Amino acid sequence: MDLINQSILVAAVILFISLLVSSFASRLGAPLLLVFLALGMLAGEDGPGGIVFDNYPLSYLIGTVALVVILFDGGLRTRIDSFRVGLKPAMSLATLGVLVTALITGSFAAWVLELSWLEGLLIGAIVGSTDAAAVFALLSGSGLRLNQRLSAVLEIESGSNDPMAVFLTMALIGLIEAGRSTPDASLLVVFLQQMGVGALAGWAGGRAMVWIFRRLSLEGALLSMFGLAAALLLFALATVAGGSGFLAIYLAGLLLGNARLAGLSTLLKVQDGYAWLAQVVMFLVLGLLVTPSELVPLAPAALAISLVLMLVARPVAVWLGLLPFALPRAEKLYISWVGLRGAVPIILGIFPLMAGLPNSTVYFNVAFFVVLMSLVFQGWSIVPLAARMGLKLPAAARPARSVRVETGIDSHYEAASFRVEAESVAEGTTLDALALPAGAHLAALFRAGERQAPEAAGALAEGDWLYLVGEGEALAEAGALFAGRVEREARRFYGVFTVDAALPAAELAGAYGVTLEPVWSGATLAEYCERHGRVALVPGDTVPFGRLTLVVAECEAGRVSRLGIRFAADDD
Predict the structure, then answer these.
(1) CA-based R_g, the chain, Å
(2) Domain 51-388 belongs to what topology?
(3) What stretches pass through the bilayer (predicted)?
(4) Can you give the pLDDT at residue 22?
(5) How far is CA 410 from CA 261, 263, 274, 413, in A?
(6) How far apart are CA 539 and CA 556, in angstroms?
(7) What are 346-350's contacts with CB under 8 Å, separation 24+?
(8) Residues 299, 301, 302, 305, Cα dihedral to 10°
(9) What gap in Å lies between CA 216 and CA 62, rounded to an integer?
(10) Taking CA atoms, which of 102, 381, 419, 521 is between 20 and 30 Å from 483?
């Protein structure tokens, strides 16, 4: 009994310190996952904690369950229109990209570690996939906002490339155990089965979840627990059926998150807590599992493998994988660098240990070192690099808090609170003159903690709180009226004003002295932009227009609907 109590105490202290330290680390821009991994190492047998932990099956179980929770949460938060935009290039990276990365990295690993070709390829397969936990956490936790196409490619790739990495790892372990040197065609069948069954299970499971959720009468917390239980059940069923449980979970989350469901907002909030807890526990456990003193002899070789992976294998894989897709050069370069490795390579590194392969500790320690280098170099640089390359979009004006309004049926109405910021559009404006978007309605106004009658409130002042009810899109649009700094950043990025993309291109050209070729005389600005863009345009894309730059500000149904105008001086 004392041992159990002591174990609970140790676990609670480690978790408490991890969360406490993470609040300070985030202010320094440090990747939180790196913090949790490092704290796990400090608590381990070579650190001050001195905890001896080498239970690989338990670590695998914890890591797998945590990844299910994280991928389900990632799917819930992926918009279906983003999924459509990024699906094809992401799937190319998730299959061909992983294979190319594994071949290049594995060949180099075989040479530098003096292993057989198959053993080197096994290392390449283990570290070949990007990690959903790392990508989701670093993109959302850092506050970085990328355009819809770029963020979708990165997130979908990380959510769907696990089947390829698991397939390659298991296939190579089987070949090494059997003493064979070349694979056969049956491995391709296994891979197609993993992808096909996983996708089918995800689609069927997601539809079933939506159907069940619409008929359940559970309270918010119980509904969230039911969602987590359904996700774990689907993962297990898909895996037992021979498919990829990870792919199934991501797709099921996508379908559920894009359905109009009563209680979905509560599910998302609670699921966010589950996902963060899963990440913290998983990286702490994986940090505990490694023995830092065993990394030292391998450090020079492992560092070389990490550099080849980040600087050679990943860029080549991205270049080949994205050849059929005309993504802008800056986005390809950014995707090449943001090949974040996280929990998945470490968990895959456990497979050879559990199989009892020769050199299994080498595989695990190299995988851990690669993840460590990825989080240090790539994780720390993704935000400044995006800003430097002009890929960082201004932060969206968001309500301080929003909740879905429960109406007894599938609801798409929300209640949101907004604080009037200094130098915002709303400051100094009366409620009568405040142009709220159609579909957004004032519910209450508070000033200095007291509710105000709208007709007697006068001009709005900094610090006033407005509560609006309406559709989600209308409330998001209303946020720009109350934001100060965020709105100024948006004006710098998109231009001082925006225009309807249905405006004739010749009309804008005439107003600003831009010479247009005769072929554009009857075209709208939307048509001009879409014909000049090499890919489907999304907000944040730019199109040259003489001495002006047109910036896509809004899209509707896949078409450009509103454009910002930046002058040459604005771009200097």
Answers:
(1) 26
(2) Na+/H+ antiporter like fold (1.20.1530)
(3) 6-25, 58-78, 90-111, 117-139, 160-179, 185-204, 216-238, 244-262, 274-292, 298-322, 334-356, 362-383
(4) 66
(5) 5, 9, 24, 9
(6) 10
(7) 346/63, 346/286, 346/289, 346/371, 347/59, 347/60, 347/63, 347/64, 347/67, 347/286, 348/125, 348/126, 348/165, 348/166, 348/169, 349/126, 350/56, 350/59, 350/60, 350/63
(8) 150
(9) 29
(10) 381
pLDDT for the residue 183: 61
Residue 538 backbone phi and psi in degrees, to 5: -135, 160
Q: How high is the pLDDT of residue 240?
A: 92
Calpha distance 271→285 (Å, rounded): 21
Would you state the CATH architecture of domain 495-571?
2-Layer Sandwich (3.30)
Q: Measured between alpha carbons, how far is 221 from 229 in angstroms, rounded to an integer?
A: 12
Helices (H), 78-145: 80-92, 98-113, 117-126, 132-141
The fourth-level CATH superfamily of domain 401-489 is Regulator of K+ conductance, C-terminal domain (3.30.70.1450)
- What are the distances in angstroms from CA 464 to CA 153, 434, 447? 39, 14, 5
C-alpha distances out from residue 172 to 118, 121, 165, 363, 545, Å: 7, 8, 11, 13, 53
The pLDDT, as a whole number, for residue 235 is 94
User: How would you label 328-349 residue by residue, b for 16+ Cβ within 10 Å and e otherwise?
Assistant: beebbbbbbbbbbbbbbbbbbb
The confidence score (pLDDT) of residue 475 equals: 78
Altogether, the residues listed in the chain come to a count of 572
Element counts in the chain: helices (H) and strands (E): 25, 9
Going from the C-alpha of 150 to that of each of 6, 246, 332, the distances in angstroms are 47, 22, 9
Q: How far is CA 282 from CA 49, 66, 289, in A?
A: 18, 6, 11
Instruction: Supply the pLDDT for residue 135.
Output: 77
Q: Can you tell me the distance from the alpha carbon of 56 to that of 46, in angstroms, rounded to the nearest whole number?
A: 18
Closest-CA residue to 227 (of 178, 276, 265)? 265
236 has a pLDDT exceeding 90: yes
- The Cα 527–Cα 504 span in angstroms is 9
The token duo for 107 is 């060949």
User: Tokens 């299970």 appear where?
Assistant: 201
Contact (CB, 8 A) for 240 and 232: no
**Spatial contact of 78 and 152, defined as CB atoms under 8 Å apart:** yes
DSSP string, 137-172: HHHHHTT----HHHHHHHHHHHHHSHHHHHHHHHHH
Domain parsing of the chain, residue ranges: 51-388, 401-489, 495-571
Nearest to 84, CA basis, from 555, 563, 398: 555
Tokens of 523: 């075209």
List, as one string, the DSSP characters of 398-449.
Answer: --SEEEEPP-SS---EEEEEEEPPTT-SSTT-BTTT--PPTTEEEEEEEETT
Cα 486 to Cα 503: distance, rounded to the nearest angstrom = 27
Are 44 and 220 a contacting pair, CB within 8 Å?
no
Q: How far apart are CA 454 and CA 443, in angstroms?
A: 10
The one-letter code for the residue type at 369 is: F
Beta strands in 171-224 (DSSP E): none
The whole-angstrom separation of Cα 244 and Cα 233 is 13
Q: Which pLDDT band, with edges at 50, 70 and 90, does 564 fall under?
A: confident
